[in-house]
Amino acid sequence: MDSAPLSPAPSTITFRDLPDTDLDRALDLLYLVFHETPEDEKRKHHHDLLRTCDRVGAYDGETLVGLLATFRFTLSVPGGELPCPGVSFVSVAPTHRRRGVLSGMIAELFGRCGAQGRPLAALWASEDAIYGRFGFGPATYGATVEINSERPLALRVTPADGPLRLVDPAAAPELLAAYYDRTRTARAGRIHRTDAWWSEEWMVTEDEDDDDLSPPRVVVLGTREDPRAVAGYAIYRTKTRDDAPGMIRLDELEADTPQGAAALWRYLASIDLTGLVRAWGRPLDDPLLHFAADRDQVRVTGQYPALRVRLVDVRAALLGRSWAAPVDLVLEVRDARVPANDGRFRLRITSGTGTGAAYEAAYDPTEAPADLALDVRDLASAYLGGVPVVSFVRAGVATEHTPGAAAALDAALRTELLPHTVDEF
User: Fold this and answer.
1) Domains located in the chain, CATH noted
2) Catalytic: which of 15, 89, 110, 131?
3) Which residues partner with 165 through β-bridges?
4) Burial 310-345 (b: 16+ CB within 10 A, else e)
5) Which residues participate in the annotated binding site?
6) Average per-residue pLDDT in the chain?
7) From CA 94, how far away is CA 116, in angstroms rounded?
8) Catalytic: 71?
9) Catalytic: 267?
10) How do residues 73-89 score in pLDDT, each as one tens digit?
11) From 134, 141, 383, 425, the catalytic residue
12) Half-sphere exposure (Cβ direction) of 209: Cα atoms closer than 13 Å
């Protein structure tokens, strides 16, 4: 991937759809850039994934020098969901770095998003410094949590007494998909998982990052009234260690109640011949961090930005989510990449008419003085409710012209739960 271009892309470089006939060339470029020599099975998997993506190729004459692909995702946002291309497979030939190739491919992406009515785009960054200048802001964060399970897990709540059952991973997608779709509406930042995504990304037999991990294990929590119900689940893998008791790697845990979550955590921490539970991607507001009785036993060992979001069409994105409070502000948004987003706009969130009506939103250009000025990347970080706007004001990267404007916007953007996702792509 290139860094900031020294000059515009040369006229010999064009950006167009990458056809199926160029998929092998695209993979050769990808592996060259990321220094990989994959086995045939992994290459086939990448080939199949790319076939399902929308693709932009950068060509110098007839030579492929850049690749950008997007998954056709929808993303949960407060109050609903919006189409959101998931950017992946980004690569630029080492011979063409710093020549505007990445800038050209992202400009092509933004143009397509506008034409196709897709107000958002999202990605996981392999290099943090690159994507902020394109307007992508970290909108979800994850925490790595470790539990010392060499002793019983100490809890402040009584775990749910519903039965636990192990489920065949092959049957898990059909069993869990409806439950996942229901729970994803409670947290912004989560993609809709297709059947293929469940089976080919979440339930793969071998983990390509660690050959020593077991195939996925799936445990489901039922209820006393209906043992076959789904009141929560955990997807995990096990690993033996030569110098210590075995480890549990937790990939996902969902539950209807704190007591249900406690039952699943207690199960994971009590698996025989293991002494460590490592959960690599937990929400920052995970209830475990409050109902664990001993925080020396349950420790947060890392925190990191996860999903980065881009508001390609700020107006459509703002009108496409729900709101928590009324607000009337003039925002001055800086966006050097999408001119339609750049300028001053009046954001008005008003109470709807009728009993139980939701707030109504309007976002229109204005000549009025700005109450708050901020970069589109920082508005993107705040969009899902995960990062307060006041933090950007305190950091000096946003300017509050009217005292209290940032806090008022935060109140309107607030969500009950922090946005979170574990679906890397």
Assistant:
1) 13-128 (3.40.630.30), 142-304 (3.40.630.30), 313-412 (3.30.1050.10)
2) 131
3) 220
4) bbbbbbbbbebbebbeebebbbbbbbebbeebebbb
5) 90-92, 98-103, 126-127
6) 94
7) 32
8) no
9) no
10) 999 999 999 999 999 99
11) 425
12) 3
